[in-house]
Write a structure and sequence with these properties.
The chain is about 65% helix and about 0% strand. With about 200 residues, the protein is mainly alpha-helical.
Length: about 200
Amino acid sequence: RGGVAELIQCIKRSKVPIICICNDRMKSSVRSLANHCFDLRFQRPNKNSVLKRMLEIAKKEGMEVEPNALEMLIMGSSGDVRQILGLLQMWKKSSNKMTYTDAQKRKAGTGKDSVLAIDHSAAVQFMFKASQDPTKFFLRFDGFFVDYDLIPLLVQQHYPSAVQASTRMGKPHDEVLQSLSDASDAACDADIAQH
């Protein structure tokens, strides 16, 4: 509370540009902030623009990617650039080459739409109980995008059971608590950065 008013005061005093980014332009606090900003609106890039840029990035990263394979990822993620970059990064860990056939095999139901069909708690359970098969990582990764505001909070809600499971497996209690603390700090930092 009061953060927007303070930000407006900082903008008025600052001699360097301050860049503010929002998702909901019509929110009342954002509207008051917009009166003190240059309002630059962005639109979702079209499929061809995303494809072209992702091919450039893949090439710079030393990946050989078939355009139709990348197009399938773009369609499966509904053009979500962050998700596509994450998928490319995970793919590169196992291979520098992506063919359409390989992408189809790995996809096998990993499209964003199929994962979004599940609810929040099912997504969290799925993320932690999916098999360790590397191709299933994409499914767990997509589970985060069911609701990237709520999923970290649901994960945090399950910390106590994670502590119990870890101590039953024989891990030292102080090590488990430190890991829990680190995870909690990361979730809080992400929430602060997002909001």
